[in-house]
Amino acid sequence: MERVETYMQVPLNELLFALSRALDFVEQDLLGVTSNHGKRAAYVSAHLCRAMGVSNADAFDMACCAVLHDNALTSYMLKAGPGDIRRLEHFQSHCTIGEQNALAFPFTGDVTGIILHHHENWDGTGFHNLTGEDIPLRAAILRLADNMDLVLKMGNGRDSLVREMLEHTRALSGRLYSPRVAQALATVATPEFADKLRDDHIDQALREEIPSMRVDLSTADLLRVCDIFAYIIDAKSVFTRNHSRGVAALIDRLSRICKIEKEKRNRLIIAACLHDVGKLSTPLAILEKPGPLDDAEFEVMRNHVSVSEDILNNVRGLEQIAAWCASHHEKLNGRGYSHRLSGADLSFESRLLACCDIYQALTEDRPYRSGMNHLQAMDIINGMVANGELDPEIAGVLAGHGEAANLNHLSGNSG
Ligand SMILES: [Fe+2]
Ligand SMILES: [Fe+2]
Ligand SMILES: [Fe+2]
Ligand SMILES: [Fe+2]
Fold first, then answer.
1. CATH class belonging to 9-214
2. Are 324 and 271 contacting, i.e. CB atoms less than 8 angstroms apart?
3. CA geometry: angle at 127 spanning 123 and 130, to 5°?
């Protein structure tokens, strides 16, 4: 009989910072800048919450929503192509998709409407025409924090910033912004506050502002967050648009066949969802290069494993998952990367993830070849087994059951 759902102790703030770092990579690559827009919106929002007497837990949730409010960026870019983040702001869908995605985050309370309504104007001319006090307070706070950062580009650290913030909020109070929120901004807009918004200060400022929250998350909670993150990771490139979720579906299926108990199976699915989170740091030009990579490009590509490891190692509670992810490109004969581990160091779970990753990648289109069918993919996998790279038993399971992994079968905690 399978064990009852267990819980993992994960500090929410560490998870939040890890995910925000991943989102920064997307900005950096797709927009050419690390604008720190999400972090600054989070800092300003959380600070305003405190000034307005919002509880610590609600301020924490507010900061999470603000960090995640533009999470629809990769999926938007996948459809519309690269551009300025401000373009995204003109589309109502970034509020609906953003809210839908972010609701998977294990918030401490109810955050419904914060992201959905962060483009409501006080005078009713926003995306959903809510007016005045009908706009949820924290959505009104995010409205100001989000828009003010885009208009004033607050990361530059200039002396005039306090005056500009005051003029900006005064001019738009009662039209775009809640007068109460604009008033609160006037009370916190000091030179020290402006200094914390600088690109080189915002990380530290946000860490100090956000209360540390360590909570027990069910594996099901984490599965939900990671499934959404897999979607964000995959959406970076058309070629990988199903990759992490495909690996997750495949590992779920093979784990069942291998009779791996539910809790570990779910952790493997989480690992599959996050194993390539470091690819958010790999430039799109390399991910989509229509030919073989040169040595330098290959080195950059390989680095995604270290970035995945680094991001996940910064979240206590995810150590085991981080270790599996860190070894997904290792080979049994020691010729893989990034730690050049060999068979004796590679657990069954690491080997399973590596096999599923390769199989899934082979069946996907790449810029220089079409996706392979099951037999073609197994030919390559069997060749790798013969070279001493992959586990023969796992390859045997793949041979019998790897075909047609069904994305809808990402059932996680369904038993
Ligand atoms: Fe927005
Ligand atoms: Fe935004
Ligand atoms: Fe990878
Ligand atoms: Fe992968």
1. mainly alpha
2. yes
3. 45
CATH architecture of 218-409: Orthogonal Bundle (1.10)
H-type alpha helices, 173-257 = 179-188, 191-196, 202-209, 219-234, 243-257
Cα 357 to averaged position of ligand 4 atoms, centre (Å): 5
Q: Quick one: angle between helices 56-68 and 37-51, nearest 10?
A: 160
Q: From the CA of 274, how far away is ligand 3's center (Å)?
A: 10
Q: How far is the CA of 75 from the centre of ligand 1 (A)?
A: 15
* Domain extent listing, the chain: 9-214, 218-409
**30: alpha, beta or left, given left = phi > 0 and alpha = psi -120 to 50?**
alpha
Give the tens place of pLDDT for each residue, 206-225: 988 887 777 778 888 888 88
d(C-alpha 116, C-alpha 106), whole Å: 17
pLDDT above 90 covers what percent of the chain? Answer: 59
Ligand lying nearest the CA atom of residue 356? 4
Ligand nearest to the CA of 145: 2
Tell me the torsion sign for CA atoms 18, 21, 25, 26.
positive
The answer to whether residues 62 and 45 touch, using CB atoms and an 8 Å cutoff, is yes
Ligand nearest to the CA of 273: 4
Q: Do domains 9-214 and 218-409 have the same CATH topology?
A: yes
Comparing CA positions, the residue from 362, 368, 398 lying closest to residue 380 is 362
Q: Which residue has the tokens 């703030």?
A: 13
d(CA 137, CA 182): 12
Closest CA to 273 of 13, 22, 7: 22
Q: Output the pLDDT for position 22.
A: 81
